[in-house]
Amino acid sequence: MKKDFLSIIDIDEYELESIVADAMHVKRLKSAGTAHEFLKGKSLGMIFEKASTRTRVSFEVGMTDLGGHALFLNPQDMQLGRGEEVRDTARVLARYVDAVMIRAYDHATIEEFARYSTVPVINGLSDSLHPCQVLADIMTLSERFSDLRDLRLAWIGDGNNVCNTWILSAALTGMEIVVASPPDYRPKDAVINQARAAGGRVTIVTDPEEAVREADVLYTDIWVSMGDEQERAERLRALKNYTIDSRLLARAPPDALVMHCLPAHRGEEITDEVLEGPQSIVWDQAENRLHAQKALLMRLIAGGMPPAD
Question: Is 289 a catalytic residue?
């Protein structure tokens, strides 16, 4: 049966560990210049309703490294842009490609596509979730820590799609997720309750200093995402005290790491000093999108890494 990746909890703890291990392996192969064309002859369709840098380049380069081919599909250049129903596009594309990645405004669009597709569907980002980002983030932390259990991640700012995904991941990783957001920008109760029901440790506070006090990792994201531009002034006012700056970082343990999924708006959610500072692992995160997604593609299309010779 085909398997989709619409949410981080579409995989279990064992699969997560396996994908991370495979990602680290293909990262070593790429670094050594060793060919790893494990998906030779395979094709990935990539539908982008939202603009992208890291998602597009990492998936496209990833498929090339794996010996396959990726097709960039702008809905305005497809019949989707002329009113063709999502379910019809899904059934047709599934007869051409081996998997589809969608970056959409509405999570329901990706869910509908997956219902009608007979090949694996990957959520490249939606308004609700961003599982590919958090998969790469987990890989990045796994490179730094031998065991993620009992680590504390402090999310500072808007309770957005990346925040939701981190909350849902808590049960898989054993990490404690503490979210500091203004009341009107906290993550949805349904996401929090779903994570807690699965055994995840999630705490919601309003004070950023309380969140970072015992944190191993500080994480933030832009305050104004695509589609939220009309709320920009209101968002900046509400979130002005949620910047990760040197003062807030000093309230965390001295070895705490800083993460940001990019793009960054320096001076808003994070300062240049922190983003470019020694505790930042932001560029490792960005690189690991490539490796984590290659491992994910191998898992969904080929069932995982081929056996060693």
Answer: yes
